[in-house]
Structure formats: structure tokens, C-alpha cells
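Justification of resources, computational component.

The compute hours requested in this renewal are based largely on the per-chain cost of generating structure records like the one below. Each record pairs the submitted sequence with a full C-alpha cell output. That output is archived, and it is also reused by downstream analysis tasks.
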Amino acid sequence: MQHNFQSYVAEIEKTHCIIEPHIQNTPLLNSKELDTKLGMQVFCKAENLQVTGSFKIRGALSAISRLNDEQLKKGVLAYSSGNHAQGVAKAAQCYGTKATIVMPKDAPSIKIEKTQSLNPKIIFYDRESEVREEIGAKIAEKNGLTIIKPYDAMETIYGQGTAAVEAIKQTSKVFDVALICAGGGGLTAGCSIIFKHQNPNIQIFTTEPHEWNDQEQSYASGSIQVAAANGSGLCDGLLTPEPGKIPFSINFALGIQGLSCEEQYIYEAMQLAKDAFAVELEPSGAIALANLIKHKDKFQKKNVFLTFSGGNVDPEVFNECLAKAKLGL
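The structure output for this chain reads:
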């Protein structure tokens, strides 16, 4: 796949202007206490404070804003465990269209409830025995719906990259390193296009749980690898079995590498984010900080950007994670 990164930068900047009325310009959080503890300057893009509680609204708005009147009239469809579902349902409201959501029946209850509150049509499936893409494709074809992909589409990637556009404007520092939460890789692709444009020497890493490290394996091997998918499922927002083809192509071309960590680091990251910034992250949203804790020796004295990608977590799950956190930095 050939890439024109200059044109991508222009599209992402244009997209930010289009979707800005509908999103939060989320804060770039920094804590002297956290910096001292980790030995670097850490800048956390708080997408947990975004509309619908995650960055996914950016890509959804970007994709839906590009639809024509006929497509908007017929409606849109998304498949998601929760954050993309909420993003598409909310974006559909913003553009006056109807959303159909294909959701796993075992999605976190808070994500189901928040999605339901946006009044889309929800179709539940069993992720053990059914394939969401197949279900979605059949429904979309039958009803003439446009599928809004969670990561494997340039329209979505343009939206996710707007987080980096904001971050660059929010500090005079130039980032040496970026750690980005990764399921399918769309957020990494969008942000990397912008960050590499600003600083070609920046080091960028996808971050994942160790048991679902398909991104890390794929960049190391140079081809798309499928995760063993034998983990606990703690990071429900990152359970994509393999990188998306378009995000992988972009990220590999830009020299992105992968990091992963064990679950104990995720518990510690959730506790650390609460202590430093009084924010509640879902496990998936804390994975970049978790990997920074594990791999902090790699990044001493650097300016590090990372994503807090989501905060949609059931209270009991959050409390269980904090109970398991044993900070030993």
C-alpha cells in the first residue's frame, strides 16, 4: 500500500476543524510527582474525558462527516465492545442519522448502558461462536447501511489523528517518545502521521497487554500476526486479534515498534493515574502508562507522550484493579 503522508497530514488537520464543534479538546496532563517517580516528563492525553469517555468519537465523527445525504438517510452500522459503539451512536446523533450497533453480549455493563442511552438499535452476539464482521456485513447489506469501521479505514484514522494535532498545540515541548494504546492500531496510525511530521526522530510504540500483543509481534516480524488470544480479557477494548491492514501498513512504514506488559502493571497504572490526576481509567485506557512503568528504563530523561484512551469502566472492576495494585516504582 502506497502512502502520501503529506496529504494525510492535511486531511487530519482538515478533519479536526470539521469535528471540533462536537468533541472535547481534552487536556494534556502532566504531574511533577509522576515525572519524578518515572524519571522523565510525561504528557498524558486524557481521552477518558472525551465525549462518550474515549477517543473513538473522533474517528466516528470523521467517518460520518464524509457521508452523503443518501447514506445519512439510510443510516450507519458499527461493531464494537463499547467505546466505538458509543462513538458511532453519538456521532450519528450529531449528523442526524440512525445507528445500528453490533455488540458482544459480554461487554462491560457500563459500556452497554452508555451505548443504550444514545438510543441506537443494538444487536448482541456471542463473541465465542459468532463473528461480528459477518453479522454486521449481512445487516448492512440488507438495510443499505454504511459500516463505520473502528480502525481499518482512512476516514477513521484521520479522526483519531486529531488527538495528536491537539497535543502538539498544548505544549511547547517536542515529544521524543509516544506510547499509544492499541487494539486495531488506528489511533497509533493517526497520531503517528502527525507526530512524525512534527519530529521525524520521535520513537513511537504501540502498547498492549502481554497476552494480546499482536501489534508487537507484527512489527517485530514485519507482517501481520494473530494474537494467541489466551489472556484474561481484562483489556476488553484491545481484544482485536490482529492489526488492521491499513493501520499496520502506515505504522510499519513509519517505523513503529510494539511494547507489551503483564496485568500487574495495568493495575499499577490505574492506581497511579488516580493518584496523580484523580482520573479513573479503564484497563484498556491505562495500557500505555502500564507499559511506560514496565519499560521506564528505556525512556529516562525523555519527553514522553502517552494516551489515556478511555475511562468507561465498571466501578467494581475499577475497585478490583486498585485492590490488586502494589506500587513498587
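Residues 5-19 form the longest helix (15 residues). The longest strand covers residues 203-209.
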